[in-house]
Amino acid sequence: MSSVVDKQLVSVLKKYFGFSKFKGDQQAVIKNVLKGNDTFVLMPTGGGKSLCYQLPSLISEGTAIVISPLIALMKNQVDAMRSYSTYEGVAHFMNSSLNKTQIGQVKKDIVDGKTKLLYVAPESLTKQDNIDFFKNVTISFYAVDEAHCISEWGHDFRPEYRRIRPIIEEIGRAPVIALTATATQKVQHDIQKNLRMLDAIVYKASFYRSNLYYEIRPKINTEKQIIKFIKENTGKSGIIYCLSRKKVEELAELLIVNGINALAYHAGMDSSTRTINQDKFLMEDIDIIVATIAFGMGIDKPDVRFVIHYDIPKSLEGYYQETGRAGRDGGEGKCITFYRYKDIQKLEKFMQGKPVSEQEIGKQLLLETIAYAESSLCRPKILLNYFGEILTKPCGNCDNCLNPKPQFEGKKFITTIINSVFKVREKFKSEHIANILSGVLNSAIKSYRHNELDIFASGKKEGVRFWNAVIRQALVNHLIEKDIENYGLLRVTDKGKKYLKSPYSILLSKDHDYDSLGENADIPKGTSGGVDPLLFSMLKDLRKKISKNKNVPPFVVFQDPSLEDMAIQYPISMEEMKKIIGVGTGKAKKFGEEFIELITKYVEINEIERPQDMIVKSIINKSGIKVYIIKNIDRKMSFEDIAYAKQMEIVDIITEIEAIVNSGTKINIDYYINEVLDEEHQDEVFEYFSEAKTGSVENALKELGYDEYSEEEIRLMRIKFISEMGN
User: Fold this and answer.
1) Could you give the CA distance from residue 385 to residue 309 in angstroms, rounded to a whole number?
2) Percent of the chain clearing pLDDT 90 (strictly above)
3) Cα(534)–Cα(541) distance, rounded to whole angstroms?
4) Closest-CA residue to 53 (of 72, 75, 71, 68)
5) What are the pLDDT digits (tens) for 65-124?
6) Is 0.70 topped by the overall pTM?
7) What domains appear along the chain, each with residue ranges and CATH number?
8) Residue 520 half-sphere exposure toward CB, CA atoms < 13 A
9) Nearest 5°: CA angle at 215, between 482 and 359?
């Protein structure tokens, strides 16, 4: 019986989606959904999550409701579903972008039984008139897409997602399938608990994607490095992520000036501009989108060839999902991230003023990011370890694997770490252990009297950075672990206890220090063997023309692997076209004829040539805001208000004020300093700079104490000192 069902599912897969076999766990997931069971799906980006609810919706009675966080994502998914069917109403979305007439049509198609798949935003799901409507409709199942939005420990927490289960209960029970591309064990438990599906069958695909190349580069001449990289990858689609809207706009402008086909995207832009820019990227009118993380969740563009992070992300989950947007079709995908520790300090400052629990979560997530960025271990190995998966051997395709650091015997250092975790009764986090061993006498160590332990300062010579590196490598070797419930507390595993009794050789390597490195070497270039490059280019042009005529993104016509297969197989008949990867009967009939015609002519003429060019760089002018800052400091306007008015961060305002003062202008910021520092502390810092040999903030922090002052406070006092004493 099972084999009959399997054959039927493969038949449906071929008919609608053009594939002759399922990927990974897709078939098992679909069968579980069709049986009416709750299902939890954890698959990496590009693993084929959407098919897990799209296919069963087509063959189930009623309409499947897909709860999705972004309007843009819904439109893409609906376009894709409609391309698989001859009837437009097979899929709809319901959100705030529709008018009353359009919503009426959607509801009519649902009632008439024509709509198999309905995408809704959680906000639309909670509207009473929609709830009343859904109560009278046959719902085949609910799919909660991007389910990590439920968890506060997830990288994209959305409070409205936590209301989904009560609404489902009110509308009427049906099986639930929750899907996400990123979830640690903690996040997974949160999702299942909130959706009341702790007994759901869990399908967890491997997070390892061998086609992705990971590299961390020092943040030096970043713009120059980015332009050089894009020029070396001309014509390829790429996403560049920045943390601030201001940087997004500056960088997009810089790329345009350099002749690069780019646009900006961030939440501060009006909705129509965002939609236009996103569509231009999807339709291949532009190559590069420079964006904040507001862009890209679930964007179904399979041929993004690189993802660049101008700024290090706030969490490894966010990082994994954002980099996962590269190479979703299994082709080349380069993930380049620029890192310096100062950016982490900036992110920590953004957390100030938030609830303590939120700050604690944010800080732990940042520590994981630092560990990943600075580590010299295989990058996919660290990422997989974070998500609870073991990669048995190095990937051989990341910067650390291709350019390994020298290794040293780590047996005694590992045993020191395990012993230290036991000494503090497995109740402290990694940074605390590293501080004890390095002899850092901070308030936490004093209050727990850990300076009285025999291990205190025993590793002072090696230092905090070294011990953090050893801890990370002990974690990757599963000798110690982080407690899921009490996030970050180190525990010794059974494997670690055995290791302590009979230690064996483990080779370790020191972490990178990106703040003191120069530029990295160029990235090795990926190639796609066997594909006729000129024909592939012509096929892409034809796809673009058809996509514009049909008003759908190019990948809805045919995805890159299909075009590549055409550029290898040269299909010149409809029967041959149906045998191409990802081309079903429906797609072949809908789009195939023009491609067959082009390939037939190409085969007859058989011309092959490929030009390439190189271009130079230039830079953009920075807009001057110094006069604005001086005027508003004279008015005693708060730095927060100045920053808000100029859409800048406070640290950027301080940098501008430093430039003003360093250029010789006297400025009085006492009114702001008095809010953040008492008189005694002001005197102490002022006195320090009176006697200091350099104006180094780092030296001041070392001398005056990291626990007593923040970098921002020292910088403010340095401004006061220079202004009063130098100008």
Assistant:
1) 22
2) 28
3) 11
4) 68
5) 999 877 667 777 787 788 777 677 888 888 877 888 988 998 999 898 889 999 998 888
6) no
7) 2-204 (3.40.50.300), 212-402 (3.40.50.300), 407-511 (1.10.10.10), 533-605 (1.10.150.80), 626-726 (1.10.10.1390)
8) 26
9) 40
